């Protein structure tokens, strides 16, 4: 959520900023703006709407300058509007600022500043911060004290509670910009006498693969000829330059109409990349190097707690089945947003597995910090190298999904499940709760998953026809049992996210305890009904829906004749072990949601009110 891009160098800043903002559109936003700095003159242009609206707005305006900052805002304080869009200026125009995150004590700070005769033009917490920095700066100057812009920023931030990723300029030092981070990611790209600052690497990779990831409480002062890094306590820090393994074509659509569709079709490759080098088909060998230092703790754990949000939480629910089936270790799955507020019972040595695509999910990071304080061994499962969660956990495993641009997560879900499967298999084999024969069979089946997903993707035209039949529905129900219950939840979430059709996922047996009241001839009921130990039970559930004239769409194992006779529509998928069935059954649900959303004219990649990386609590 929210996007930051800034530039200082010899290029025309405007072109860099606009291109960067377009690369950040996937994060979700409702307004956009830029500030261009040309000597001591700063031109700010901003508006509610899309980056394209901003481009049209500045067509005949002064866009000169080699230094600048740009922002896409996802509304927190104040509705989407021109006045609430970033950048914000301080009252006396000394400081210009863009901000990701939330200043929690902004109301108190605003009241204090109003007593000092500060006036505000927006409803945002960001403008409060701009004025607080200016107040510190001008107060020192009035008292004849020497103060730098960085010192004013540092002093002001010591009064702030909350999260921030900041880029700031000061009119007295127009040749420099300041970047600061706490809880909201910022990365600095380094090239020849030029620097790029962004909320993630996507706007940077076109220009450089050398980056510095700011840590919490870092404050960087950046000029064309160098970078100086200190923390909020004024302690000098040595920047750690990393190389990012990201290619430009990975964040392009490459001929697909939408990023979401591209990412659905990338899943065979993404899953292969996630187990490549870790799982050996011939020798039936599995090793997750990222868990080397904590594997004994994981193997000997008395309890595992999985924390996550949204789609990652659904992957965690699948993980609960995997760990309890394969390892017999009691496993709980918690919403990260609730975990920290309910005094969870954690004993020293318990394992907490934190799952996040971005590695920056604010609630999940807060849960990690709490778990560490309580003595847990915290393991991360994450897609983005260099993000906060890998840095804050004891150990972990990267998924190798590649960049996921579409707001509605697809390949992150299946690669997270792939990692959790390999983790549970490793522990189960080590603890002898999973036999060598079972382990070998799972290795073989996991290797075949990418090929089987490719077979399912060939059914896209059939799924598109089903989507056309139900696209005008206002409600839908998703049913699954066992491993497929979390997939039902995920399928319902996808439909809600991108088509705005109300959908609910339920354990199939629970349908009788309430949701059955909703079923009529207009209600699509999507049933995950592959052949497993609860197959006969799911047939009974389908009969119950049919008796109430619901529209039955069943995901079944190839060759199933029984359900074919009673369902209105079936989508066949290849057979796999029931524990791996989530990796296959979710694919038709992703495509179904995608096609319905397209047919309804929805913005598939940027659904309303949603953000890709939720960096505020």
How would you describe this protein?
The chain starts with a strand and ends in an 18-residue tail after the last helix. Helix 3 (106-115) packs across helix 4 (125-142), helix 9 (310-327) runs antiparallel to helix 16 (485-499) and helix 13 runs antiparallel to helix 14 (436-457). The protein has an 8-stranded antiparallel beta sheet with strand order 3-2-4-1-10-9-11-14, covered by helices on one side. A 6-stranded antiparallel beta sheet has the order 5-6-7-8-12-13, with helices on one face. It has 617 residues and is α/β, with parallel strands linked by helices. Helices cover 35% and strands 23% of the residues. It folds into 3 domains: 3-100 and 163-250, Aminohydrolase, N-terminal nucleophile (Ntn) domain (Glutamine Phosphoribosylpyrophosphate, subunit 1, domain 1); 253-456, Glucose-6-phosphate isomerase like protein, domain 1 (Rossmann fold, 3-Layer(aba) Sandwich); 459-602, Glucose-6-phosphate isomerase like protein, domain 1 (Rossmann fold). The model has no long low-confidence stretch (mean pLDDT 92).
Features:
26 strands, 18 helices, 6-stranded antiparallel beta sheet, Rossmann fold, 3 domains, Glutamine Phosphoribosylpyrophosphate, subunit 1, domain 1, 617 residues, alpha/beta
